[in-house]
Specification:
By secondary structure, the chain is mainly beta. The protein has a single domain, classed as Cathepsin D, subunit A, domain 1. Strands 1, 2, 3, 4, 5, 6 and 7 form a seven-stranded mixed beta sheet that branches.
Length: about 130
């Protein structure tokens, strides 16, 4: 299966005119989004804290994070942005996808906007 990419705008909530656009890899295995440090700094965001993240190869690393507006596919959400090393590929995590009401179609390697956001889990007998 190939990779799915989408253009995303990361915007500084305190100064919405300061933004950065990038091509993000859609990563349903990642909870948060990841953006290289220089891109975060260029729009005036600073680290707000640190969390421990587990990498694809199983290593646990402590990384800085900030919060920002996240825009893609005509929708706006907000979320935690992991501040990555230079040269890292930007990642769009599952929290931003779900918050924007977007689901991944793995067969066609496309993103689909849901007709409505889910507020509750459907029971087995409900459709």
């Amino acid at each position: 299966m190939g990779a799915t990419h989408v253009t995303v705008t990361i915007r500084n909530p305190a100064e919405p005119s300061r933004s950065w656009d990038g091509l993000f890899l859609v990563d349903t295995g990642a909870t948060d989004c990841l953006v290289p440090r220089s891109c975060i700094e260029a729009i005036g965001l600073k680290p707000e804290g640190q969390r421990v993240y587990e990498t694809a190869d199983g290593r646990k690393i402590r990384m800085d994070f900030s919060r920002a507006f996240i825009e893609f596919m005509g929708d706006l959400t907000a979320g935690r942005i992991i501040i990555g090393d230079e040269g890292t590929e930007p990642l769009l995590g599952v929290t931003a996808l779900e918050s924007a009401g977007i689901e991944v179609d793995p067969l066609n390697q496309r993103l689909k906007k849901l007709p409505a956001l889910r507020l509750k889990r459907l029971s087995a007998g409900t459709r």
